């Protein structure tokens, strides 16, 4: 099943500002029913059987700290490589909705920490992967959304909650 951006997020455009001259864009609206519907559709996609298998594999196995470990765990053409790409690209796509203002970030971050989990697991190797792929923006939306989620958790639950989360992720 293929969904277009129009299918996923019909409704009102977002109004964005750059507070205090920072590089961070903030959504200036309350979550809408469209935000909730998009969040539910993203959840439905996560329940698809192949995606569920990929997520289970990622959570249980992906703990690479170097490109060499990544190459050993996820060689090109292997099922683990496909699982990695499926999980990482899914959260990169979901992150793009938050980063572009299509989805309210507070609603998104309040309802999933999985983007943060995936970011924390990918973060140690991302520089090496980008260099190997010669793509400095590879998984850029995952990175931006992951960092924003980390900031959100620290702000809403405290720095200790974020530290405890990262300790569990490993």
Descriptors for this entry?
170 residues; mainly alpha; two-stranded antiparallel sheet; 2% strand; disordered N terminus
Structural description of this entry:
The structure is a single chain. The chain is mainly alpha-helical. It has one domain (32-169). It is 68% helix and 2% strand. Strands 1-2 form a two-stranded antiparallel ribbon. α7 (114-133) runs antiparallel to α8. The chain is globular, with a radius of gyration of 16 Å. Residues 1-22 have low confidence and may be disordered.
Give the averaged pLDDT, no decimals.
88
Q: Tell me the distance between the termini.
A: 34 Å
Q: Helix proportion of residues, in percent?
A: 55-70%
Q: Trace the largest sheet across and list its strands.
A: 1-2
Q: What overall form do the CA principal axes indicate? A: globular
Low-confidence stretches: 1-22
Strand content: under 5%
SS-based structural class? mainly alpha
What is the gyration radius calculated from CA atoms? 16 Å
Largest sheet: 2 strands, antiparallel
Q: Summarize the helix and strand pattern as letters.
A: HEEHHHHHHHH
Given the structure, what is the number of helices?
9
Strand elements, count: 2
- How many separate domains make up the residues? 1
